[in-house]
Every structure is written in structure tokens, then in C-alpha cells.
Design a protein that fits this description.
Blueprint: H1 10-17, H2 21-39
Helix pairs in contact: 1-2
């Protein structure tokens, strides 16, 4: 949500929630993959 509706970068999200940018990247990839599967 922060990435698309809050228009925040992965780095900004990571700083806000207290995780690494790489963790944010992995979570986004996993979430988007799951959404795509559900939409197919």
C-alpha cells in the first residue's frame, strides 16, 4: 500500500517499518506474484 498509494520508495518504506530495503523488495515481489496468480 505504501509503495503504490503512498508513492514511497522501497527505501522509504523500509525506514518507516524498520526492515531492510531488500526485505521490502522480497515482500513486494511475493505479494505481486500472489495477486497475479489470483487474478488469472
Amino acid at each position: 500500500m505504501l509503495r503504490f498509494f503512498g508513492n514511497l520508495t522501497q527505501t522509504q518504506i523500509a525506514e518507516k517499518v524498520g526492515v531492510s530495503q531488500m526485505h521490502v523488495s522480497r515482500l513486494l515481489a511475493k505479494t505481486l506474484s500472489s495477486l497475479r496468480e489470483q487474478l488469472d
